[in-house]
Amino acid sequence: MNDNVEKEFNVGGNIETALSGQYELKAGNIIREAWQLTRKNFWSFSPTIVVLIILQIAIFMVALKMQLGDPSVLFSLLDGSADSSKIESIVQSVMIANFSYEIISAPLYAGVCLMAMSHATGFKTRTNHIFKGLHFTVPVMLVTLMGLVLQGLAGAILPFLSLYFSMAFSNSVFLVCEKRMTPMRSLLLSLRAINKKLLPVVAVYALILVMFFVAALFYGIGFILVLPFFFHVKGIIYRDMFGIKMKIINSGGNGTPPSNNNKQSQVFDA
Fold first, then answer.
1. 35 is in which domain, residue-wise?
2. Beta pairing partners, 6
3. 129 and 48 in contact (C-beta within 8 Å)?
4. How many CB atoms are located within 10 Å of the residue 74 CB?
């Protein structure tokens, strides 16, 4: 006999309020909460970030090797021995490899986003939850591909437009995974919702850009803090904009409240 009792509820906003802008979104509150979540989940979340980076680098190097044959030719750019035609070929190869790794690693990136979203609702995660994004491999890769193409086209017109679309589409992966939306609809809804709260979102992402720059100055060591912070910001903004549907399973049955251990295992189930 199954004594599990399921209870569903919504945390944060919803689609209607996201598109109307009838809710509060303050940059200061987002930054403070993201920092608190980063500190609270640092030791459990940071290994996942490291795994993501390693896998992304591996995918990039494989894609680059397929383009160049021998990635060591990149050093010819540094010593100035490459002629103009060779430089152009190398740059194109790097851009294609970069594009390829973003598409291929998109499901893993989605898994990290879902983990940050779980933190924003008070639940714990484990490193292997990075693979939850694989449940949505095709739509996540499609929405990433569409977003990158639109960003590239916009950037060809005006460089800063690429940054704008990158920010405007920042909720699309969440919408595909958590709301089960189609890639095109998720891009459109993310764009419309971000435009309703453009100023606070721009302020937060401007700070993140500065943090990325500072982290790079310290040989990339600072990314161990900046990247978890970045993902938590994304999770908080999504929660406050669109809301997150949660399901609590009381395994005790008969109204018996779940134990702390049960609660810790109740993470968003992609």
1. 5-265
2. 249
3. yes
4. 14
Task: Give the total number of structural domains in the chain.
Answer: 1
Residue with token string 């680098």: 57
Give the rounded percent of residues in the chain with a pLDDT score beyond 70.
83
What b/e string do you get for 227-242 counting C-beta neighbours within 10 Å, with b at 16 or more?
bbbbbbbbbbbbbbbb
Q: Quick one: CA torsion of 183, 187, 189, 192, rounded to 10 degrees?
A: -170
Q: How far is CA 78 from CA 33, 42, 57, 73, 88, in A?
A: 42, 37, 20, 10, 14
Answer yes or no: is 270 within a domain. Answer: no
pLDDT tens for 147-195 read 999 999 998 888 889 999 999 999 999 999 999 999 999 999 999 999 9
Distance CA(116)–CA(34), nearest Å, equals 10
Instruction: Please tell me the distance from the alpha carbon of residue 166 to that of residue 147, in angstroms, as a whole number.
Output: 8
- The backbone torsions φ and ψ at residue 180, rounded to the nearest 5 degrees and listed phi first, read 60, 40
What's the mean pLDDT when you consider all of the chain?
A: 86
Q: Cβ distance 180 to 194 under 8 Å?
A: no
Element (H, E) at 10: strand 5-11
Asked whether the predicted pLDDT for residue 20 surpasses 80, the reply is yes
Closest CA to 138 of 113, 106, 109: 106
Which two three-digit tokens encode residue 247? 């399901």
Structure tokens at 146: 């569409």
Is the residue at 59 inside a domain? yes
Asked if residue 61 is part of any domain, the answer here is yes
- For the chain, give the number of residues: 270
Q: Is 39 part of a structural domain of the chain? A: yes
